[in-house]
Amino acid sequence: MLSGLSTENLARASARRPIRVLLAWLAVLVIAIAAIATLFTDGTTTQVKFLGDPESKQALDAIERLRGPEQITEIVILRSPSATVDDAEFRQTVETLTEEIRSLGPDVVTSAVSFYDTGAESQVSADRRTTVIPVTIADGFDGAEINIVDVHDLLSDADLPGGYEAFIFGEATFSVDFTEGNQADLERGESFAIPLALIILAVVFGAIAAVFIPIVLAIISMVIAIGIVSIISSFFELNVFVQNIITMIGLAVGIDYALFIVSRFREERQRGHEKIDAIGIAASTAGRAVLFSGVTVVFALIGLLILPQSVFVSLGIGAISVVIVAVLATMTLLPATLGLMGDRVNRFKVPFIPRPRLDDGTEHGGGGFWAWLTRGVMRWPWVAMLASASFLIVATIPLFDINLGSSGVEDLPENFRSKQSFDVLRQEFGFILGAPAEVVIEGDINSAPVQQAISDLETALDADPAFGPASEIEVNASGDVGLITFALSGGAQSKVAVDAVRTLRDDYVPAAFAGVQAEAHVGGLTSEEVDLLDTTSAYQPWVIALVLGLSFVLLMIVFRSIVVPVQAIIMNLLSVGAAYGLLVLVFQKGVGNELFGLQETPAIQPWLPLMLFTILFGLSMDYQVFLISRIREKYDETGLNASAVAYGIRSTAGLITGAALIMVAVFGGFAAGDLITTSQFGFGLAVAILIDATIVRSILVPSTMKILGDRNWYLPRFLHWLPDVRVEGGAQAPVSVSGEDAAVAPAGAGD
Predict the structure, then answer these.
(1) How far apart are CA 125 and CA 116, in angstroms?
(2) Which of 148, 173, 217, 734 is deepest in the core (most CB within 10 A)?
(3) 142 shares its domain with 226
């Protein structure tokens, strides 16, 4: 299929009928906006859902047999500066607030129970100046995300006596805070990335008119991709972080792809080709590189779809959608735009950006920084290779101390509602009441052996400081499902809570229920965290093998070589490993984090290494395909490996570096976000892309290819049957033009 696909013909057709193409994309854009407005919010959630059947899900299913559909309980906290629960004023304040919460109605709140209703001392702090009111929110988790806003508004407007403070803590509140923080990070990232990208594009192009083409194409790709996932979310609920991944990847690849095409178009115009011919040549060379690099990125991202966890699947769907849309836009919308604008893309020249000369294509030709660097690398290839590889290996070392764990409420900034409530609960009660370990027992709950097992479990946990007091056992009407909860010290995703639940699962529960005719499962938020860690660990080798295998096969077919894909895989693994190491060094170990304005955290997000691997591997292959295709194009023309490598590096280094800086700007904007999830993800991507586009593409790749010589293009005879779908479009003879048809070369690109 790929061998019969002509990017050149598609681009020429689009350039000749630009109005039709633009109207078609406008229609798709309008449909996407309508889908976002009507479907996106209802189809996304902050909740982590497993698509398999881990223990936490088994426990949740059993709890639903006990209680019915999942109910979310929030903890309202009331604190007085001096009065205690024994004082009349305090009691009056609590009872009034409780009644106001109940008055929201059963569609919002199904129950609210104060200390004065239960008499339970567990609802009162040690100094008796703080009490908690458990509030059950209606309509399960999805409904709670909406209904909790009414409770928040009530607490904000509550008429409390002087000095009294009201807080609220729970899953729904954390979800609202996370969603608002996520949106704020998204807006901050965009406001930082887009202006910086405009500046970089102005330097690379040297003309203001060309600057806005990549930005607009990227934004259109993002909006349409969000529209696609909005439609998908009406059938399969997606994680809300899908919007972030679409924005990050969409800005990065959308701008990069357009940058490559526009630059090649301007170069071919300078060489003397007519407008339509220049568009066709750009599509047959850089355009085919974009197509195959996009396919490579998609192949890498497919690995995320095999993990039975909603976060990975959501992010995979979002990233794949925006890459596909960006490739299609580059193949059709961009040629149509160039067909309309023609040489007007060169208008409004940026001052002080010199016009580069066309490269003569020899090993030691060209001028400027990249030519100088390339000559040095080609002169001392062994030194360059060993030095760059050693740096990457050393940077990888901190990876071996990585500690995986989700960020929880304790990692939120101090201005978040959930973080303030968390600190009060931890200070006043010592245990986080909203995230207990839930032990669900299925069997004859009232039988003597089961009752003895429950008693043994309570006794064992009572002696373990990692666990708080046990609740009263809750039993369903038929007596075959029981639930007992244990408070955990620390937040739901904290290391102490995770370790406690692992011990509960592996030691305490099996010991207490050994030989008993009943099944006991450990559920709760921390149990879900344990299952997330275990699922990620179990599937990681399979995802890596799939990504490496698909990438190897694609690159082998595209470049008709087994050396090029092996080299690409090794180098990409080195750059990804270095990015992992620096991520651990900065966030987990706190080395240089203050320099970047980043928060030190005890753990790296459990999904991050695998997510980074797939995305970075795909984006690294993006640059690899673009670079190697230019080298192969010159090699096929001359048959001289060293000259082809030198020319390929010189002619693409400026573009790749400019494209990489745009990606770094995009990802760096998200790294500055408040949420640890966004911050770690953005930093990891930014660092990896910067390393890949500089050290790997400018030093390691050319030095290795110079050492290997013609062996770079070795394909065993038994593989010669493979289809020839190479990226490069062949040499184009220059034609002279004059007057208005003469184009200005892409300034600053070195291309």
Answers:
(1) 14
(2) 173
(3) no
